[in-house]
Structure formats: C-alpha cells, structure tokens
Amino acid sequence: MSHVRKMAVIGAGTMGSGIALVAASRGIEVALVDVSNEQLERASGYHAKTMDRNVQKERMTREEADSALARITCVTDMADASDADWVVEAATENSDLKKKIFVRMFETFGPDVVLATNTSSISITELAEAVPGASDRVIGMHFFNPVPVMKLVEVIKGRDTSEETTHRTIELSESMGKIPVPANDFAGFVSNRVLMPMINEAFHAWADGVAEPENIDSIMTLGCAFPMGPLRLADHIGLDVCRDIMLVMHRGLGDDKYLPAPKLVELVDLGRLGNKTGHGVYDHT
Ligand code: NAD
Description:
By secondary structure, this protein is an alpha/beta fold. The protein folds into two domains: 6-183, NAD(P)-binding Rossmann-like Domain (Rossmann fold); 192-277, N-(1-d-carboxylethyl)-l-norvaline Dehydrogenase, domain 2 (Orthogonal Bundle), CATH 1.10.1040.50. Helix content is 47%, strand content 14%. It is built from eleven helices and eight strands. The protein has an eight-stranded mixed sheet with strand order 3-2-1-4-5-6-7-8, sandwiched between helices. The relative contact order is 0.10. The mean pLDDT is 96.
C-alpha cells in the first residue's frame, strides 16, 4: 500500500488513463481529470475492458477488478479533485499548456502535494518556473506506454526539486509496482533522447526509399532484436507525440539534428496519428 491515499491524474489520454488504472489497482483512489468528456468516456471503456481481460486471464478476481474500477472517479473540473494528496499531470505535450495546468494545480491542491509531470521531453525546471512558490514539489515522473505493462518510471529532478519530493516519488513508483530510475533534466531526458532520433531516422530512411516501412521494421526487429520496429512503435506512441518531442528537443538542445523528419510531419498534418486514429504509418482499421 502506498502512502498516497488519493491521486489526481490530469489528462485522460493514452498515458493518464493507464496511470489511473495502475494506481487504482494498487489501492489508491484516483480522480481522473480531462477537459474532454469524450476522452473520459474512452478512458472508462479502456479501464473496463482491461479489467475484464485481467479477470479472464485470472490475474485478479472479479471483486478485485470491481473495487479497483470503483476507486476511479472521472471529472472535467480539477476543483473536484482538490482533496488529492498527489497529482500527476499527463496532458498534451505542449509547454504553454502544461505551464497553465501547473498554475491551476498550484492553486487547487494543498501545500504538501507533489506536482508530478509525465512529460516525455519538456524541462522540469522550465515547468517549475510557472509555479515559483512550489518548485521544490515539481518533479518528472515519466511512465512508459502501455503503463500497466512497462516497468520503468524515469524520475527527473528539476533545479529546485527537493530530496523529499524525490524520495516520495521513488516510494510511490515502487508501490505502483514500477522500477524508478533517475535521469537529469535535459530535454528528452534519456529515453527520448536516444529513442526519438532513431524513430525520426526511420522516417528519413523510408522517405529516401531505403526500404518500405514493413522492411525497415523487420530489419530492426530481426537484426537488432528490438521487440517492435521503430515505425510501428511510432504509430503506437502517436505520430503527433513523436513530432512534438522532436520539436522540444530541437528547441531545448539547439541542434538541427533534432528537427522532425518531413515525412513524419506530413503524416501528422494529414491527421494520420497512428493507432489512436486508426491510421499512421500503417493502416490499423
Ligand atoms: P493524449 O493526446 O493521448 O492525451 C492527452 C489528454 O490531455 C487528452 O485527453 C486531452 O483532452 C487532455 N488535455 C488537454 N488539455 C487539458 C487540460 N487543460 N486539462 C486536462 N486535460 C487536458 O496524450 P498522451 O499520449 O497520453 O500523452 C500525455 C503526456 O504523456 C504527454 O506529456 C506525453 O509526452 C507523455 N507521454 C506519452 C507517452 C506515449 O507513448 N504516448 C509515453 C510517455 C509519456
């Protein structure tokens, strides 16, 4: 059992819905907050379906599944989650939006509440600057997709993050069944600094005609022992998310090698965002 009684999760997309489910499965009350009712409904559907599968596969009893589901409340107004004692922001990867959300989080939650962010690439110090009175409580708590399956939480301290905040984040990650690993506060941290340029390069290779997507992915899975090829992984992550992470690294690290590949940008502009829209590099319909 965690020391955290109730967690607010801001954003009910791919990541927020997964974080909410894992927390609830570990006995934590969850308020899942999103501006979009449709996203909240989609998250509830995903929660019910995942728990049905867990019961079918005998990973848990029906009672355990039902009581985990009953711990999750969906709300559209952050004020309705204000009694939470932990908050994880998992909204769209856009620093202006996240800064506004951080100001709202600072105003909404109590003075001891850790303000964690699941950002994939944005500097923790930069986000903390939006809430100067609470910068010691701001930390990166970077889960991986799909959250119920992936063990890692990349823990990123900003310039002012306190030891206590870090310690509590490690403790909470472990109590959620995860393995926390520290990284320093550079755009993209470790995971995306290494992964995203590889995905981006796969788009360049495709555009240059080096190979078709299926063959690029087969070469990387069969030849480099990757569990999933880079282009299929990009569809899974979301092509818009991949583009945005490249842009954040381009801005934060100041090197043109981080510019998103034109082919990646083209697909995003066409609305082909990957699994979530049914079409990205591949057709998922
Ligand atoms: P997503 O697009 O699936 O979901 C984002 C959600 O945020 C949407 O439901 C949107 O309605 C909501 N939102 C937007 N503005 C909001 C606001 N003001 N208040 C509340 N909710 C708001 O995105 P995602 O893939 O879940 O990514 C969320 C965060 O997690 C991003 O920072 C991303 O970089 C990070 N991340 C993503 C992955 C991944 O594989 N997709 C992995 C690790 C981390």
